[in-house]
Structures are given as C-alpha cells and as structure tokens.
Amino acid sequence: MSAPAPKLSGEKIPATVITGFLGAGKTTLVRHVLENANGRRIAIIVNEFGSLGIDGDLLKSCGIAGCTDDDIVELANGCICCTVADDFLPTMQALLDRDDPPEHVLIETSGLALPKPLIKAFDWPTIRSRMTVDGVIAVVDGPAVATGRFADDPDAIARQRAEDPSVDHDNPLAEVYEDQLNAADLIVVNKADLLDAAGIDALKQGIAGAVPRAVKVVSAYEGRIDPAVLLGIGAAAEDDLDARPSHHDGADDHEHDDFESFVVEIGEIADPDTLVTRLRAVAEAHDILRIKGFVPVSAKPMRLAVQGVGGRFRHAYDRPWTPTEQRVGRLVVIGETGLDQAAIDAAIRG
After folding, report:
1. Which of 168, 247, 256, 313 is least surrounded by Cβ atoms within 10 Å, i.e. has the fewest?
2. For residues 194 and 142, is the Cβ–Cβ distance under 8 A?
3. Is residue 25 left, alpha or beta, with left meaning phi > 0 and alpha meaning psi from -120 to 50?
C-alpha cells in the first residue's frame, strides 16, 4: 500500500469527505486508510447520528500506530450538514490552528448527511484560504442497493407525480442516497464479497448511469482500497458545486424527521451468537435500518462490538473493558420515524 506524497509547505490542506448510507462501511474504510498512512498525519472528523459515539469509539480503540485520540474528533450534536456554523467550522479552525496541523483531514459523515452543504462550508473565508475538498468518496452498501433497499426508481416517481400530483411519493432514503452519489468524485461499492461478479458489474453500471457526470465506480471488500486511490484526487470540490446537483438545491435546510434513533442498554450476555440471532429477528420484524454498539459477554475480558444493517450482522471482540468502565451493553437502534421503541427494547433485552 502507498500513501500520497507529503503536502508541500504553503499548499492548502486537503480534506476528503467520506459519505454513504447507514452501514455502508465508512468507518471500516477510514480505519484502512489510517492503517496504511505510512506516517502521514491524518485527522479524522466523525459525525454521529444518535446519542452514542460508536463510530468514533471504534476508531479510537483500533490501536493504529501513530493515531492518537486527539486526531479523532466526534461531532455528536446533530447532522454535520445542519450544524456547519455551530459545530463543523469551529472544529476545522481548531485543526488549522494546531502547532502541528494535519497533512490530510478525513471527514466521515453520518448516513443521513447531505454532502453538498458540507462542501459549501469550505467556501468560508478562513477555511477556503487554507483548506480544499480533495475529493468526495461515496461508499455504497453493495448488497443492500442491489436489492433496492435504499434506492427507488426516480423516473417511476416522476411519472407517478405527473399522474397524481396530490399524492406525495417522496422516498427520503432514495433522496439521501442520490445526493451522496451526485456529490461524489469516487464511488466505492463495498461488501463486494457478498455479490457475484455479474451482480457487481450490473450494480456498478447502474450507478455510473445514474450519476450526472463521469465518476469512477470501484468495488471493495471491507473498505480495502489503496489510500493512493482515495487521497490526492485534487477535485477542489468547493469550486465545482454546479456539477454536483442535490434534491435540496435552493432550499435553506433539510429535515431529518423521517429518521429516529435510541439506545437500548442490556446486561452481560452468555452467548454472542444467540444475541445476534435475536437482533436479526428484531431488525426484520420492526424494519430497523441499523443496530450498532457494544455488549459485555460473561467471563470475557474483551468487549463485543456488534454491527448490523437490516438483517445482516457482524460481531467481534474489539478491546478489553477498562477498569473504570461499567460492563453494560449499549446498542444504538436507527430507523425511520415510527419505530415501536418499547417493543424493540423489550425484544432486544429478551
């Protein structure tokens, strides 16, 4: 693996925006970049949706040489594209004002964030003079998109609206997904190991045909892509906004009322496989988009990390519990508005 050449003195610090829907594999991709940074100073900004900093914690606990907690900043006060002035800009300014500013900044957005407002933030005078958007990377959950889970046919929606304009046919999941693709300079179809070659080719061709400009679409397994492919694109996306259309162009803001999240606390479990089987059943019964978090396992010193997208789950021990931590499991549940939180909570606790 190789990394881009060090930034020359006087050049703008490049920033890469990593966007993608819930569970697409953004954090895994970021970790892979850090593991192959070859000494390059990289700062990470992680935007959470929900009250528990799972993704930031995963990065901080990964044990990557040269990556300290100070290099990972969590923005947990809401969607990054809705809190630009209050949250994001001060964070970027603080990074720039360090005695040893980063050589590159990776910004992992939440699955609900629209990239375009974030790109626009780089036009802020104090940021624009010192930073540039090197590129926007959209990470796609290959199996999910292949089954139509997070995307609808925009032409079919347009036809339905034309036939009956009094009916609202908006699909917020599809709009977010399309906005992320439209903003991208590179699209990564992740989890390619879960699709056959024909399925990957069809998905890549479909994505390439849906975006409004020529954008390279590549496939990956667990976000394993040479950082030289991801970093050093040189897009200067803040100067190229017109080529990145959004469903929200002309709007002052956007709403996330279509989504909600909450945290379920559980005690120690006896068997991880039993828990995952239960979580899978709960996710499918209640149409949950995402379940992620940490759980203590009886007689195990290591913490069990659980990640689920729809009915697909993965789990692994990530690090030991610290002496000051309470051995309590916390799982973030994310879905569209209207989740039966009491029923989900009870079903997860078993």
Report:
1. 168
2. yes
3. left
Local confidence band at 71 (pLDDT 50, 70, 90 cut-offs): low
Whole-angstrom distance, CA of residue 245 vs CA of residue 215? 14
Per-residue model confidence as pLDDT tens digits over 227-266: 999 999 999 999 999 999 887 776 555 555 566 778 899 9
Cβ neighbours around 216 below 10 Å, total: 13
State how far the Cα of 22 lies from the Cα of 261, in Å rounded to an integer. 12
Distance of CA 13 to the CA centre of its chain: 22
DSSP string over 193-258: GGS-HHHHHHHHHHHHHHSSS--EEEE-STT---HHHHS-----GGG-GGGS--TTTT-S----TT
**At a CB cut-off of 8 Å and minimum separation 6, what does 336 contact?**
172, 173, 258, 259, 260, 287, 289
Helix axes 272-286, 341-349, angle to 10 degrees: 160
Residues 139-165 as b or e (16 or more Cβ within 10 Å = b) = bbbbbbbbeeebbbeeeeeeeeeeeee
- Helix (H) / strand (E) element for 334: namely strand 329-336
Token output for 179: 């906005």
Q: At what angle do helices 172-183 and 154-163 cross, to 10 degrees?
A: 130
Q: What one-character DSSP code corresponds to residue 297?
A: B
Q: CA 182, CA 151: separation in Å to the nearest integer?
A: 13
Q: What are phi and psi of 117, to 5 degrees?
A: -60, -30
Residue-wise pLDDT tens digits, 101-115: 889 999 988 777 788
- Class of residue 91 by CB neighbours under 10 A (exposed 0-12, middle 13-18, buried 19+): middle
